[in-house]
Amino acid sequence: MSTLPPCPACHSEFTYEDGANLVCPECAHEWSAADASAEKTEEDAVIKDANGTPLTDGDSVTVIKDLKVKGSSLVVKVGTKVKNIRLVGGDHDIDCRIDGIGAMKLKSEFVRKA
């Protein structure tokens, strides 16, 4: 079962598809399904830190939790500052290089903007 977005006019959850459009049965508002998916991808494209601050390429972040490195006995400690991050899509949002450990992929939920 696919989930359709709520109506942008009245926020009703009972929307349905009618050809290429989405329709709200409560307020009769019609909008394009392509517009709804474009809005959703724009919202998903913004990567935010643990505090909700948007991150950009080249930012510096601080680790807020001890992170075990998979396949190694190394640990990235709380308070480790990571400079010049690069944002990527996927499960791990941040590519970076940590001094003493090397190249890493981090999740944005475990960092805050420095």
UniProtKB/TrEMBL annotation:
Entry-linked Pfam families: YjdM (PF03831), Zn_Ribbon_YjdM (PF08274)
Entry's Gene Ontology molecular function annotations: hydrolase activity
Gene3D superfamilies, alphabetized: 2.20.25.10, SH3 Domains
InterPro entries associated with the record: YjdM, YjdM_C, YjdM_N
Coiled coil: none
Keywords: Hydrolase
Sequence ranges assigned to domain Protein YjdM C-terminal in this UniProt record: 47-114
Residues in Protein YjdM N-terminal domain copies: 3-32
Domain of life: Bacteria
Annotated family: Belongs to the YjdM family.
Entries under NCBIfam families matching the protein: phnA
Protein name: Phosphonoacetate hydrolase
The organism of origin for this protein: Halopseudomonas xinjiangensis
